[in-house]
Design a protein that fits this description.
Layout lengths: L5 E3 L6 E3 L4 E3 L6 E3 L3 E5 L1 E2 L3 E2 L5 E2 L5 E2 L2 E2 L6 E2 L8 E8 L5 H15 L5 E5 L6 H11 L7 E2 L12 E6 L2 E6 L2 E7 L5 E8 L11 H5 L10 E6 L5 H7 L13 H16 L10 E6 L2 H9 L1 H4 L12 H22 L1 H8 L4 E6 L8 E3 L2 E5 L10 H11 L15
Parallel strand pairs: 12-18, 12-19, 19-20, 20-21
Antiparallel strand pairs: 1-2, 3-6, 3-10, 4-5, 7-8, 8-9, 10-11, 13-17, 14-23, 15-16, 17-18, 22-23
Helix pairs in contact: 1-2, 5-9, 8-9
């Protein structure tokens, strides 16, 4: 496959020509990169190649890993060949975002082929945390094993890395990369998923410190928002009065959303009152608790997502359209401030009920957890299907500027 003439680094967001990419030395004697750190292989411009076309480092070792020539962050090779679709994932603390990512992407990988799609890892190493979480939920053989996922750490090394941009060290989230397209089509694209801890969007004295770590908002083509209705008092009183909320005091989720949009506007140079002109997909989490009460037959009905049949992708999106309309009307009655905030800030909004686990975790030895046999996601893949649907017709090319359409 031909290289793109220009690509954008998902770490520092600077552009470079594909032929300027650096390679990462594999020789054990070439450790200690001036920018990436003492434990990293030296980044170098390839000058020698073997008979198969593989780059050779200064010690003669074959190299396949590549890095940005500016920040020296490691990159998937697909970035040099496929137009990319950056997507930002946002959610308040304890909104269920970590579970949604693990369950939703697991189900998306399972269902893509029966919808006529390709959805596969660009490079499993970059999706290591996602796969670890998937294994913790779905890779357990003993059904009575207790499972739980760790919350997103504000600065954990597994989820973030230090990036030097113009001499300034910043913390950036580690993106996950997926190759997407239609089965049988040679036209594919690279989805980049960026996830931050909810604390990064709290509008307080720390906002400026965390804003650099959400730089991806300037470039995202869609926003996926995790919203927990059970954290909303009026919603819980009407649709889940018997449910007790486990954990610390919650945030106002509409405020977290507004802070996120304020950053989008600042980063993109938009007017404070201008729409962000991006699709916003709101995943209404923990619907196993409230779905039947709040949505009735809409939640209880067996759909194309439940039957395991081969169906056209358009039917999945038609389902999402119907469900979104019902969920929005329901949510407008009990959480109008959040629906109003979304409607006034997005070009198109979706409201999709999901259950990442299929049941509510319980406190076990002071930790929110459940038995592996109880994990049964429902509709967790639907937000990601809509993300793909919205991104497919967004104009992007190799430089994310000219038009290219995934068909």
């Amino acid at each position: 496959m031909a290289l793109l003439p220009e690509v954008t680094c998902p770490w520092c967001w600077r552009k470079f020509a594909s032929w300027d990419v650096l390679f990462i030395a594999e020789s054990v004697h070439l450790r200690g990169d001036a920018i990436s750190g003492a434990l990293e292989g030296v980044r170098f411009k390839a000058m020698r190649f073997d008979a198969s076309g593989h780059a050779l480092d200064p010690d003669g070792a074959r190299c396949s890993r590549i890095a940005c020539p500016h920040c020296h962050g490691e990159l998937p090779r697909a970035l040099l060949e496929l137009p990319h679709l950056p997507v930002s994932i946002v959610g308040a603390q304890q909104s269920g975002k970590t579970n949604l990512l693990a369950a939703g992407l697991w189900k998306m990988a399972q269902n893509a082929s029966r919808w006529g799609l390709v959805w596969t890892d660009a490079d499993p190493r970059f999706n290591e945390v996602l796969h670890r979480n998937e294994s913790m939920l779905f890779g357990v053989e003993q059904g009575d094993t207790i499972v739980t996922l760790p919350k997103t750490d504000v600065s954990g090394n597994d989820l973030y890395r230090e990036v030097t941009i113009h001499g300034v060290v910043e913390i950036a989230p580690r993106p996950s990369f997926f190759i997407v397209g239609d089965q049988g089509s040679s036209r594919q694209m690279l989805v980049e998923l960026f996830d931050n801890a909810g604390e990064h969007f709290v509008p307080d004295h720390r906002s400026s410190r965390y804003e650099a770590s959400t730089r991806h908002l300037q470039h995202s083509l869609a926003l996926l928002v995790s919203f927990d209705p059970l954290q909303h008092v009026a919603f819980r009183q009407r649709h889940a009065p018997q449910h007790s909320v486990v954990g610390a005091r919650h945030q106002r989720q509409d405020v977290v959303f507004s802070e996120m949009v304020a950053r989008v506007r600042r980063m993109r140079g938009l007017s404070p009152s201008a729409p962000i002109t991006l699709p916003v997909i709101v995943a209404l989490t923990k619907a196993d608790v409230w779905g039947a009460q709040a949505l009735g037959d809409v939640w209880n009905d067996h759909t194309v997502l439940d039957r395991g049949e081969t169906v056209p992708f358009c039917e999945v999106i038609a389902l999402a359209e119907r469900v979104s309309g019902c969920a929005k009307q329901m949510l407008s009655e009990v959480a109008p401030e959040f629906v109003h905030a979304v409607d006034n800030l997005a070009s198109k909004a979706w409201f999709l009920p999901v259950s990442a686990l299929g049941c509510s975790p319980q406190l076990i030895d002071g930790v929110s957890a459940l038995q592996a046999s109880m994990v049964r996601p429902r509709w967790a893949e639907l937000p990601f299907a809509v993300v793909l649907h919205e991104c497919r017709t967004v104009g992007v090319n190799q430089s994310q500027g000219a038009a290219a359409e995934l068909v």
